[in-house]
Regulatory protein AtoC
Amino acid sequence: MTSAITPAHILVVDDEPDLRTLYELTLLREGYRIDTAGDLQQARSLLMAHHYDVLITDMRLPDGLGLTLICELKAEHRHEQCVVITAYGSAENAVEALKSGAFDYLTKPVDLKQFRQVIASAVRSQAATAVAVKPVIPNAGPGILGQRALARLIGQSPGMRQIKERIVKVATSMAPVLVTGESGTGKELVAYAIHANSHRAKGPWVAVNCSAIPDALLEAEFFGSKKGAYTGSHVDREGFFQAASGGTLFLDEIGDLPLPMQSKLLRAIQERRVRPLGSTQEDIIDARIVSATHKDLAQEVQNGHFRQDLFYRLNVIDMTIPPLRERPEDLPDLCHALLARIAEESGAPVPAIQASDLEKLGCLRLPGNVRELENLLHRAVALGNGESLQFDAFSTPVSDGLSAFPAQTSPMDHAVIPSDLQQHLDDLERQILRRALQATGFNRTAAAAQLGLSLRQMRYRIARLHIDSAQQDDTDVAPV
Ligand SMILES: Nc1ncnc2c1ncn2[C@@H]1O[C@H](COP(=O)(O)OP(=O)(O)OP(=O)(O)O)[C@@H](O)[C@H]1O
């Protein structure tokens, strides 16, 4: 163990004496204090007598399941971080363990390097939790970061309150989280808040938009590459997994990942190691995975577009953010916070919003959710006189996002028979795409969803029709 002051105290529960000794010796060498037990009964007596930092338990024990111990500890609100050792290929057990509150799991045969890393991570997490439960922690790192991240999530509706409570609850474990919700509902903000509230808060936050990476580059981007692995690779490059080591890897738009890459991702997550392109060595990975999608992933599994086993791996904890139209009580707070943000960016005073405008905004369907609202407010500030807002969104009927904007002329209005049909259809398509992009604040994901296209199809059309979508939203930036 790295801390020399009070070595962490660990309980190892395994019925195989050889394995127990192996784990014990490995951990003793790291400087931890170790107790061992061969079955549930012995483990229970030790747990009654001592509080441990970490419990490591085999899943199958002569008198029951290791999972039972975890459930008992959780029921007693004990702070031990639990690591479960499961048989190779029993993904359900691992998922079950994480759902029950285990910090992490290892698969047999246990790789000792990985074993040491996971236990070190569990010890760090336990230490962070122990600090977090002390009453006063001035400027405590993860605490402050976490609080800030939560504060950026505006909304006091029951739906948002539940989301915030869940963020705090799930942040401390290693269990993968899948965040779902319509475009612009704040999935990335939620994912970041999970990271900022975890013991990994000071580690890297790596946000990846899976749909923005060309298929041919996916493997190199995720797993890294060695110099010369492919044409044009002049230096060794680390992949997202290596970059996120000790932190969180956020996989946005996971539903857009092509099937072959899904298999490779599954293998990496299961085996916790990746092989950079052109390398003979594998790198051990230590990143928590949080993913997000605006798609119905279960339906994608049904349709054969998403691997079921990967779905189970990523979806150990699921969080669904309700669309803005289902939490209208959040609208006033959101408007005030977004206007304050806009004013801060421009250095201008915060403009006031009329109750009548709030009411009209409440009638909009806003398919692009908070992002669309943000965009409407931006426009209203720009069109206003500095003190008051001027909404152009209400100049036309406001039944949906598209009609909130002034209508544009369509070539069909003139009802001419085109002399070049392809050109004519391209013009028409270009106009429709531009309108959808404009209506969603140039959010290609939202515009694609509105038109029933995948983001890939949208990006292809934008490129083919040379549409200037300068305000692209699908870049890989962390919220700051
Ligand atoms: N509850 C909220 N409070 C404050 N701002 C929010 C909230 N929800 C979303 N936003 C803002 O809306 C914008 C979109 O949020 P975000 O990128 O997290 O959404 P998303 O669901 O990940 O979208 P997409 O599916 O298109 O990737 C951001 O500017 C974000 O700051």
